[in-house]
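SEVERITY: medium
COMPONENT: batch folding queue
REPORTER: lab tech (J.R.)

DESCRIPTION
The queue accepted two submissions in a row. Attaching both inputs and their returned structure tokens so the on-call engineer can compare them side by side.

ATTACHMENT 1
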Amino acid sequence: MCILIVKTFVPVRTRRFAPGTPYASLVFLHLPRIIWYHTGTLDETGVTWGASRRAGISGHKPAVALSKEGYVILVFSDQDHKNGSNLIYQVGRIDPYGGRRQSIAWLTDAIGWDRGFHNAIAINDNGIIVGVHETGHASTGLYYRVGRFADPAAGAYTIHWDSGVYGIKYDDGINPHIAINNQNQVVAVHQVSSSDFLLHYRRGTVIGGVIHFGESRRYDNYAIAPAVALLDSGLVLEVHCLGGFVSRTGRLSPIDPEVIDWAEPVMG
């Protein structure tokens, strides 16, 4: 259902293997204060999901990222409203080549990482973690963080934030989402406000602990709640919702480093 995709069904970073190879990915579902997840396997016909499992964590607006090593980063808000909300993360692990019936082995406790609401998270094969979120009070700011695991080889799975102890403002809006590829290129999308149906994107590049973003650009005039993925080829995969499930593809322009060349949206 569309409501699950927009509010409680979180698309995750995907990784392609040879057809038939077991592939583990995650989706976290949100019921009042209880976070659940599924693991699944992907082949050329689609995703086969395992049973829903409790994450053993309570929270709101969950999102998830999965690394090539199978590290799981779960992020969520501690409240169901914006004012005074705090953001939490917890790190776990699954077998990235395992089946759909496996469970997450949690490696950290729940750890606060910012004040804010409605967050999203992504990680690439270089170990760079990027997160975005709304402000945690009655304003319109969107903020980002850049980090990496402290030292997984030594069993330190907390996130070291190279961008600093606070989020860095990069735009205004709601419903932010972000993707990063293995060339450290970034695409961030968001809805302009709750009173309109305008979607914007920004292209950027991670250098050190900073995302060097380009200009905010309109790409849809009638949509809400966008999410995005970015491949190393420059292919952009975007989904949003308004009266149904809508997807569209784009490609990073080789001419203008701030532009995405979008195809027309597709319903369903």
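ATTACHMENT 2
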Amino acid sequence: MHPQRREFDVRPDSELLDTVADWHTTARDILTGLREAVRDGRWTSAAGVAGVGLVAAAAATGVLLLIGWAIAAVLSWLAGHVGSGIATVWHQVIHPAIAAPIDAWFAAHAGVFGFDPAVVMWAWLGIGSVLLMTGSLRSPAGVAIFLAWLGWATTTTAIVYTTATAGDALMSAGIAAVAALMLSLGSIIQLPTRTVVHVTSRETQAREEISKQTVALTAARELGDEARIERIHRSMRDQLAVLYPEDKPDGHWRAEMHQYRRESRAEVPLFAGVALVGAVLLIGMTGGHLFPIAVAVLAAVTLAVSTIRPSADETYAAQLHREYEKEQQREADAAVLREAEATLRSVPLDDGGNTDKQ
């Protein structure tokens, strides 16, 4: 934990990175205890701690491999059943009713102008996709794009109607219209909402918040909830800082800078841990392919190196301890100088025997 977190009320910017930094400090404490146990010859204690750590790592690896295998099995089942259902809908409904008439229309008309029918068809579908994704009802430009999308959908429905066989033309056009309506729902539900903005000053908000927290603090004291009381005190200090701002001491700024550094250094073990977990899951899913194994080894080495390194809290605590020792030494030296000065003042000066003889 941050050595001066409670002294200066330092808040983390990221709770996740702050937690990872705390874990790093805890891991370093465990490693320091192991090193001292080995140095003192307490092999049984060291072996017990190391054994628990290895068993926990092996158990976590086994669980992740099992989860990866289960995910692969579920995905395989979905690909077999859901995929076959989607293929059935495509081949029996969408392709004969919509895709085939569109393909036939472009094949019959685009070739007249010397263009590749497939290229023209995919360009037409691409234009429709862009209009669909950018159209909305929240702005004038979005409304214009949405109207263009409706025109595109109407034209495509007309293409389906005119190209499908006489017996299926009405049904194919109906399916195309329903598909266009379903695709349009994403833009239709984005109706513009009236926004009401209440402008209040920061000072007014702070005073209102303090009034609410005062009531909450009374209730928390009646319940004896110390954790809640501490949270309310912190929040009230923040609001009071808004009403009565004051300069922070140098130590506070330095403590906040250390909090920033410890969170920055926590990014490496966090990303390495996430990569390690993901790689182990992929090993379970793929049955041991080389790529996830290589990623897992690299992530494990990175995590181990970042853990073995002294944590930011250790470095900062050592710096504070050195500064404290220097301050103690300066105070001791000052005390010696004051004592020596007092001693010199208490001794009468000697005139060296140079007295006038009468």
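NOTES FROM REPORTER
The two ends are 81 Å apart (CA to CA).
No errors were logged for either attachment.
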